[in-house]
Every structure is written in C-alpha cells, then in structure tokens.
Amino acid sequence: MKILVNSYYNFAQNTAGGVYSKVINYIHSAKDSDLTIKQFDVWNDKVIDYDIIHYFALKAEFMDQMYMAKKLGKKIVISSIVTIADAKKTRLKIKLGRHLHLQTNENIRQSMLQMADAIITETHKEKDYIVEAYGIDPAKIHVIPNGVSEEILDGDPELIMGKLGLTRPFVLQVGRFDSNKNQLSVIRALKDTDIPVVFVGGADSSAPNYFDQCKKEADTNCYFTGWIKHSDPLMASAYAAAKVVVLPSHHEIFGNAIFEGAMTKSNIVATDVLPLEEFGFSKNAIAIDSTNITNIKEAIIKAYNKEIDETFSDFVKEKYSLSAIFVQHLNIYKRL
Questions:
Q1: pLDDT value, residue 141
Q2: Could you tell me the maximum CA-CA distance found in the chain, to the nearest angstrom?
Q3: pLDDT score for 200
Q4: Rounded to 5 degrees, what angle do the CA atoms 313, 246, 145 make?
Q5: Which one, 144, 232, 271, 311, has least CB within 10 Å?
Q6: Residue 25, pLDDT score
Q7: 236 compared with 255, residue with greater pLDDT
Q8: Which residues pair with 39 in a beta bridge?
Q9: 192-209 burial code (b ≥16 CB/10 A, e <16)
Q10: How many angstroms separate the CA atoms of 245 and 131, rounded?
C-alpha cells in the first residue's frame, strides 16, 4: 500500500511546531511496516501513483489536489487539527457563504471534510465540533491521539542543569512564545517565588514582541533556552530535570508537552480547555484557568511540592507510544 503524505506549505519552516512533529513522528513510526510512505514533492510526485493521500491539517490550499485525487479514485484521509470555535457561528458562516455563492474558508473546509473517506481527530471534543459545525457523519471520524516519541526518555538531567547553572528541579514549559501559549502568565505567577522555571522555545514569527515582553518581565528565576531540537539530548535532559511541566494555553487541541512530561515522570499542570479526563490525566494533572494568574501560581506550587506518581509514566508509554498510535492509523488504511 502506497501512502502520499501532505501538509500545508510552510509547516516545515518551524521544525519545533506541533504539526511538523506530528508528521515526522508518524513517518518514523511507520518505518517497520509494509507501507510505502512518501512526503509529497510538488515537482515530482504524481497522485495517480498512490493508493491513499493523507493530509495533515485542514487547509484550503489542498482543495484542488483533493478534487483531482477523488476523480482518480484515490482514498483521502485528513488529520484535521482544527481549532475548536463556536459551532453555531461556524454553521452560520457556512450558510451565509452558500447563500451568497462565496467560497469562504469554512465552506471550503466543509467540502474537504465531505470528500474525505476518513477523518482523524486528536480528541472526542474535536470530533464533536466537526460533527456539529460542519455536519459531517461521525461514522467516518476516528479519534486517534498524537503519539509520543520515546527519544525523550532516559535523558541526563545534568546536561541542562549544568548549562543553566541550576542545582534543583524546575518548572518546564515547551513551545513557541505567543499570547495563546501564555508564558507571560507563568512568569507573573512565579515572579515572587524562588521556583526556577525553564522556557524552551522561541518567538513566533507573527508575534515577536511577545517574546521580548516575556524576557523583559522575567525575574532571575526564569531561564530561556531558545529552540531545542526534539532529537537533541538537551531536550531529553530538560524533561528529565523538570519536576513540573506546565501548559497554560488559552486554546489547545492536544498539547504534546504534557504527554512527554508525564512519560518522563514530571507532575503536570495543564489548561482546563483540554479534555484531561478523556486523556486519562484527571487524577494525575492539575487543571488551571489560563486567565487566572493566582490559580496558575497555586497549581504550580502544589505540583512542585507533590510527590511524583511514577506508575503514571507507564500508563502514558503504553497508551500513547508511537507504535501504539500507528497501529490505529494502519487499521484505517486497511479498512479503506
């Protein structure tokens, strides 16, 4: 079986981005299967040569190629990765676009979802939104969470501790700096504490001023590493040395960092917009209101002083490992 993998034009420009990591992890986990998986090359690859076209993210730029694939009798899989909004407003935009004979983004997305033979969402919340907002048959939507790469396991905590001059475990936040990821609230929450907090990531190209503001407001307990490649031993070291991994985003679909933190035996503090109970995290993660700095502070302090349940790591490895997640993708391909 031959699978052609595609994603939006600039997804690989930020190699620390969530979609890029998702695609690379997916391809890596398929290496021992009998599938032929090819990353789409617009200059050389022909859709007709493949059995299934798998799109990562729901982007209007795929529309023409999807029409062509359907005409050629190819099966289409979409890993949707949509931001969950107000379903009623989305339906209204679709209805208005149809009435005015306009090809709005929402109308195009609905057409793409209707053309797909299978849709993969990361959570049931995302699935429910697609059903309600776009009127898609739930029978063709499959919930498959992201896989967690085991390359972050068994890191040497001394690598990053020595690099940053730290002598005690710290709070870790991983991701690009923008207002949604909400690093500034963590900085403000821990400003009058002596708890060290390490930020891995750099400025979002669309919001460089936010990163500057974070560094300006940061106290001496804050450390900024810049971007670290996921395969870099320093990344595994950061997870190994962290006592708490925090994800305080205002909007979030999945949140890879909390799974990586749980796998590497950190306590978890995560935004309450995530379905923590669905993930199996409700007993082992502290949910926070991303808009409430006092709540963020209290949750992080509680997690920092809490003993780590090491059995939780085993649960995450078993349920969310790359190999376990890839089997679910493979089953969809076989049914198609």
A1: 97
A2: 63
A3: 96
A4: 55
A5: 311
A6: 81
A7: 236
A8: 5
A9: eeebbbbbbbbbbeebee
A10: 32
Distance CA 296, CA 299 (A): 5
269: tokens are 């503090």
Q: Residue 247 is inside which H or E element, if any?
A: strand 242-247
**Residue 15 pLDDT > 70, yes or no?**
no
- Residue-wise pLDDT for 135-162, tens only, equals 999 999 999 998 888 888 999 999 999 9
In 3D space, the residue among 325, 316, 154 whose CA is nearest the CA of residue 235 turns out to be 154
Interior CA angle at 110 toward 106 and 115, to 5°?
Answer: 150
Q: Answer yes or no: are the C-beta atoms of 140 and 119 closer than 8 Å.
A: yes
Q: Which amino acid is at 163?
A: K
φ/ψ of residue 285, rounded to 5: -130, 150
Q: Could you count the other beta carbons within 10 Å of the beta carbon of residue 326?
A: 22
* For the chain, percent of residues with pLDDT exceeding 70: 99
Cβ atoms within 10 Å, residue 105: 13
Separation of alpha carbons 244 and 303, rounded Å: 6
Phi, psi of 164, deg, nearest 5: -95, -5
Reported confidence tier of residue 219, pLDDT bands at 50, 70, 90: very high
Q: In which band, very low, low, confident or very high, does the pLDDT at 29 lie, cut at 50, 70 and 90?
A: confident
Rounded Cα–Cα distance for residues 30 and 36 (Å): 9
Question: What is the predicted pLDDT for the residue at 16?
Answer: 58
Eight-class DSSP state of 308: P
At what angle are helices 18-29 and 322-335 packed, to 10 degrees?
80
